[in-house]
Amino acid sequence: MNAGSGEADDADAIDQESVLPYYHQLKRILRTRIARDGLNEGDRLWSDREVGDRYGVSRSVVRQAMAELESEGVLHRVKGKGTFLAPAKIDHGLALSLQGLFAHARSQGHTLKSEILRQEIAPMDEHAAAILEVPAGSPGFVLERVDGEPWAHTITWIPAGRVPGIEKEDFTSSSLYQCLTDVHGIAFGQASRSIEAVPASEDVAAALDGDVGAPILRMRSTLRDADGVPVETFIAHHRGDRSRFDVLLGTESDIASLHLRP
Fold first, then answer.
1. Is the dihedral of CA 185, 131, 237, 115 positive or negative?
2. pLDDT digits (tens, 9 = 90+) for 44-60
3. Which of 7, 92, 133, 259 has the least CB density, counted as fewest CB within 10 Å?
């Protein structure tokens, strides 16, 4: 959807007397127009020439404003097609709160569905076995799935002896962590998690319907039970244009008092 044509009114005009740079003013103006015009994600926005002509600024000013709005997740550009309003980023909230993606999605009012790519008992590879402190080749439950629109691609390993029969569960619309607690009686202890930005590999890009080399947020996690024994490990890749992680900061006593939710 394109916004209406016409000259900019005073509220939408560049203030040439302001100390704020033109590109900064233009960003604010475009954000206001997007909200005012009721544009939806995926709607086509204005071309650089249309924006420059409407607000009387140079192409370099328009390009800088658009580039910053793209980096902030407001819009995205498709070469040869135009500029579009980007979908809102979803807070996955997994950096500090010990809960699964399904539980967090529900708490945010979302209904999450998964495409299951792999769900079986298989010999554990050396990397997963080392993290879970079992011999390489030990039987493990592996769950590989793509969550959301898609938002994330996740591969999870759990020692098979801890979760008999779990390979028969349906995880297309249910929580793995809830299954671990309710069905298998595992009491969670602590989890260690790391998040880093990486370019999407061919496999990850294909799974997430994205571009090779696009920014991806990679999370690695190891969950221990109440006795400190490793019970689950996963590696997840989240689309950078659809995801964010909100982290709560506080004093050590604040963090210690947080309730870790299954």
1. negative
2. 999 999 999 999 999 99
3. 259
3-state helix, strand, coil in the chain (%, to 5): 30, 30, 45
Give me the DSSP letters along 111-159: ---EEEEEEEEEEPPHHHHHHHTS-TT-EEEEEEEEETTTTEEEEEEEE
Query: What does the DSSP assignment read for 211-239?
Result: -TT-EEEEEEEEEEETTS-EEEEEEEEEE
Nearest of 242, 247, 256 to residue 88 by alpha carbon? 242
Distance between CA atoms of residues 168 and 186, nearest Å: 18
Note whether 98 and 262 are within 8 A (CB).
yes
Half-sphere exposure of 72 (CA within 13 A, CB side): 10
CA dihedral of residues 70, 76, 81, 82 (deg, nearest 10): -50
Whether 76 and 241 have beta carbons less than 8 Å apart is answered as yes
Torsion angles phi and psi, residue 139, rounded to 5: -65, 130
The per-residue b/e assignment along 210-224, b for 16 or more CB within 10 angstroms, e otherwise, is beeeeebbebebbbb
**114-123/139-147 β-pairing:** antiparallel
Residue-wise pLDDT tens digits, 240-255: 777 666 666 555 555 4
Tell me the one-letter amino acid at 46: W
Look up residue 62 and give its amino acid.
V
